[in-house]
Design a protein that fits this description.
about 350 residues; mainly alpha; two-stranded antiparallel ribbon; 15 helices
Length: about 350
């Protein structure tokens, strides 16, 4: 079963890779940057989907975990000449190790207490940059050179397209890994602990260990997303990892549909594209500067409330429901004929 799942997920990833490859040539430079941004947001939101949607733990600190991955990418790159893939892998592992420590403490907390603990992480961890300005760059953060496209791609190959390729490749790898994880025995353990911790413990599961594992997986995704942010922006600064980022990641997971990796795509697209669209609307309507500055937040709030009222299971949940409804209606029209029933206007002799 797992082999079939792996083959299916690899096929989906291959089709998505082909589509993204063609799309990157059709898009301009700015749009390719947005595509790369959606990709690394997807990685972070997908990790939250596993943690919150699959395991039931609420984290408001994933922006801080992204900061760990971003700073690790730059600091390791400064001290060693390593390929970009190795830097991203180190950032992912480093953040996962931090996730072990945080997850071990979080396993003792429940509900609002867990959210409060991770909230403190989101507020406190980025402030360390100001505490150690010589090492972490202070308020201005750390910068690095953007990744150079290989010479085999040609002299005029756009940097933004190369950044989009890197981010999308990492996002597709994340999708394949997580999609197989949620179908494995670990995914079943995550769901069992989420649904009923007592029953899971009676079934022989180590509840604390399962929760720590879920947090580590989610932290690793956040670390990879932070490294990809550096690939796209060439910068790691405290201002990029505020509490607002952590809240945006969680609300995006809810908007897209908790527990759904496809929902993480919708959530990432909304977080990235909605502010741009709102700014365009503000300019078209010739709004004042103060109103235009707050319009993206207002539109995001309206969309969040509207989706939660119309589709409590998120965008992907609504699409799945609509697809199931259409499928049932199609089967309802075809199944009677397969049993020998007559269609309207026909008579069985």
């Amino acid at each position: 079963m797992l082999d079939q799942t792996l083959l299916r997920n690899l096929a989906l990833a291959a089709l998505a890779a082909l589509g993204l490859y063609l799309l990157s040539y059709w898009l301009g430079r700015f749009d390719n940057l947005q595509l790369a941004t959606i990709a690394y947001y997807f990685v972070a939101i997908a990790g939250l989907t596993v943690l919150t949607g699959l395991n039931g733990q609420i984290s408001l600190g994933h922006g801080a975990l992204m900061a760990i991955g971003a700073y690790a990418t730059i600091k390791v790159g400064e001290s060693a000449e390593l390929p970009l893939a190795a830097l991203l892998a180190i950032a992912t592992i480093a953040t996962a190790l931090v996730g072990v420590v945080i997850g071990a403490g979080a396993a003792r907390l429940r509900g609002p207490y867990l959210a409060g603990a991770t909230l403190a992480l989101a507020v406190g961890l980025p402030a360390l940059a100001n505490r150690f300005p010589d090492f972490l760059g202070g308020e201005n953060g750390l910068s690095t050179a953007p990744p150079v496209p290989p010479s085999s791609l040609g002299v005029g190959f756009a940097l933004e397209r190369w950044q989009a390729w890197i981010a999308c490749a990492a996002a597709l790898i994340t999708f394949v890994v997580l999609a197989n994880l949620v179908r494995s025995r670990y995914g079943r353990a995550f769901r069992a602990v989420r649904d009923d911790e007592v029953a899971a413990a009676l079934a022989g599961l180590n509840v604390a260990r399962v929760q720590v594992l879920a947090f580590v997986v989610s932290a690793a995704c956040a670390g990879l997303a932070g490294g990809l942010l550096v690939v796209v922006t060439s910068l790691a600064a405290p201002g990029a990892f505020t509490l607002e980022l952590s809240i945006a990641l969680l609300t995006a997971a809810v908007l897209g549909g908790l527990g759904s990796l496809a929902g993480a795509v919708w959530g990432a697209a909304i977080v990235v594209l909605l502010p741009t669209w709102a700014e365009d609307i503000g300019r078209e309507l010739s709004l004042s500067t103060s109103v235009e500055a707050n319009l993206p937040l207002l539109v995001y709030g309206v969309v969040l409330i509207g989706v939660m009222l119309a589709a409590p299971r998120g965008i992907q949940g609504a699409l799945s429901w609509a697809g199931g409804l259409i499928g049932r209606r199609v089967r309802g029209h075809t199944e009677p004929r397969s049993r020998g029933a007559s269609a309207p206007g026909e008579e069985i002799t």
